[in-house]
Structures are given as structure tokens and as C-alpha cells.
Write a structure and sequence with these properties.
Layout (H helix, E strand, L loop, with lengths): L2 E7 L5 H12 L2 E4 H10 L3 H11 L6 H11 L6 E5 L5 H10 L1 E9 L2 H9 L1 E3 L6 E3 L26 H24 L3 E5 L4 H12 L3
Parallel strand pairs: 1-3, 1-4, 2-3, 4-7
Antiparallel strand pairs: 5-6
The structure holds zinc ion (ZN).
């Protein structure tokens, strides 16, 4: 069985960055489910077509498609894998603990109101696709893209109502996951308000402990 480490956290918590840093450090494969799905869709694979029609219908991607995606993307020569954006529900968590040797589950702990603030600060350049954040990565001139000079916009799915709905849904679905991993003694919470380096060091200290 191959080793697996999981990063749980809401959008904006920095889990993707931490997953990437740890993967580079311990030479594990980093699997970001969202990226994999987008890649399959843009390559128009059979799996991508199935996933795309599901998303277009407004449905969640079914678990068996997610499992298939992971199986086909796994690098068999890698000593372990770091999951980011997976599992999303209890069925996925059970699949994970059945098929992998689960080492650790890191939870990037961010308060609901801070999560909302972080997501609300995001801005996008509609012309070149560059991403900005009003707090952590502002453009040099307010509201203007550094690369191409276009006027920055807010993503369509970043309306205040949509953000609040997503944040609430996240906390509701993650509560069950946290208890599941906690009962197995695998959960480690990390304070998401700390800097990227500070959090990374906490992870390294924890992972080298045993
Ligand atoms: Zn631009």
C-alpha cells in the first residue's frame, strides 16, 4: 500500500500551497483533484467528457469517477501521494483509508469570517487570466492588471451570496470528515492565519516526528 497524506481546508486557506511545498520536500506526488478534473476536460478524454456533462448539469462529480481519476493519475513509482481537494465526503474518506496507508491529515484551520474575507479579495484579469488578491497580492495600480493593463474583475462565482453559500457548505461537509479522521488519530490542525513558511515548518516538524 502506498502512503498518503491529506490536506483539508477551505478555498483560500493555503492548503494547495502547503501540499505543494510538502510534496517537493518529501518527493511525494501531489494530486489536486480540481486540476486533474480540469485537465481531463480540456484534453477531452472519455473521463473528461463524462465529468464535463456532470458538471454542466450542475451535479457533483460522482465518487466512482473521482476514484477512477485518481487511479489513472497515480505515479506507481512514487513512494507516496499528497491529496489536495480530496476526500470531500465520508464515502471518499473510507475509500482512502481502505486503499492507502494514511499517514496524516492536515487541516488548515481558518475561521468562517476570515475565509469569506480571503475569497472576497480575489480579482481576475479577464484578458490575460492573471490572478490578484487585494490583501496578499494586489496589482501595482488599483483595479488594473500589471501584465496587460486591462480592468480587473471579480469572478462570476465570487458574488457575496455565492461565497457565503460555498463557505457554509464547506464547513458543513468538513465537520464529518474531521471527526472521521480525528477518531483514527490522524488529524492535525494547523493555524491557517500564520505565514506560509511558519505553517510549512509546523508540518515538517510533525512529519519528521515519527
Ligand atoms: Zn491581464
Amino acid at each position: 500500500m502506498i502512503d498518503a497524506i491529506v490536506f483539508l481546508g477551505i478555498q483560500g486557506s493555503g492548503k494547495g500551497t502547503q501540499a505543494e511545498l510538502l510534496a517537493a520536500h518529501i518527493r511525494y506526488q501531489h494530486i489536486n483533484i480540481g486540476d486533474l478534473l480540469r485537465e481531463q476536460i480540456s484534453r477531452k478524454t472519455e473521463l473528461g467528457k463524462k465529468v464535463n456533462s456532470t458538471i454542466l448539469r450542475g451535479d457533483l462529480v460522482p465518487d466512482d469517477l473521482v476514484f477512477e481519476l485518481i487511479r489513472t493519475s497515480l505515479d506507481q513509482d512514487c513512494p507516496g501521494v499528497i491529496f489536495d481537494g480530496f476526500p470531500r465526503n465520508l464515502a471518499q474518506a473510507e475509500y482512502l483509508s481502505k486503499h492507502y496507508r494514511l499517514v496524516r491529515v492536515y487541516y488548515l484551520d481558518l475561521k468562517e469570517e476570515d475565509a469569506i474575507k480571503r475569497i472576497q479579495g480575489r480579482r481576475l484579469c479577464p484578458k490575460c487570466g492573471a490572478n490578484y488578491h487585494l490583501l496578499s497580492h494586489p496589482p501595482q495600480k488599483p483595479g488594473i492588471c500589471d501584465n496587460c493593463g486591462a480592468t480587473l474583475i471579480t469572478r462570476a462565482d465570487d458574488s457575496p451570496q455565492a461565497i457565503e453559500q460555498r463557505v457554509k457548505a464547506f464547513f458543513a461537509e468538513t465537520f464529518a470528515l474531521k471527526s472521521f479522521f480525528e477518531s483514527k488519530g490522524l488529524l492535525k490542525s494547523l493555524p491557517a492565519e500564520k505565514s506560509i513558511t511558519q505553517i510549512h515548518n509546523l508540518v515538517l516538524k510533525d512529519i519528521h516526528k515519527d
